[in-house]
Design brief:
Length: 119
């Protein structure tokens, strides 16, 4: 599965759009992790407990996005984005979303975005 943040895929053209797909994860750090993060925040700097939590959560959200795109029969996701928010005081929500499409290698007869070439 090809996943890109651009609305096009260089060297390919979109032949079918399957629609929007997303992968959503809500996570909470355990009591011990929250305590360590709180203590670490007193000294300033990076809070490794939360960095690790969010990195893992983004990977899982991206995996779920790819799974949902695969179920729809897509072979690529365009315009992929991450969004995040906080739920209550101890939970983080991460969503990866984009447009599931079927792309084919561009034969050189059309532009990168799949539109008709300019003459």
């Amino acid at each position: 599965m090809i996943v890109v943040t651009t609305p096009y895929l260089t060297g390919h053209r979109v032949v079918e759009s399957k629609g929007m797909v997303f992968g959503l994860v809500v996570r909470s750090r355990g009591l011990g992790g929250n305590l360590m993060a709180s203590l670490r925040s007193l000294g300033g700097g990076e809070i490794h407990e939360y960095t690790s939590l969010l990195e893992d959560t983004r990977r899982q959200a991206l995996d779920r996005l790819v799974k949902n795109a695969t179920v729809l029969g897509a072979n690529a996701v365009l315009s992929m984005r991450f969004d995040s928010s906080e739920i209550a005081a101890s939970m983080s929500e991460i969503v990866a979303y984009g447009t599931a499409v079927i792309v084919v290698p561009d034969s050189g007869e059309s532009s990168v975005s799949g539109a008709d070439p300019v003459e």
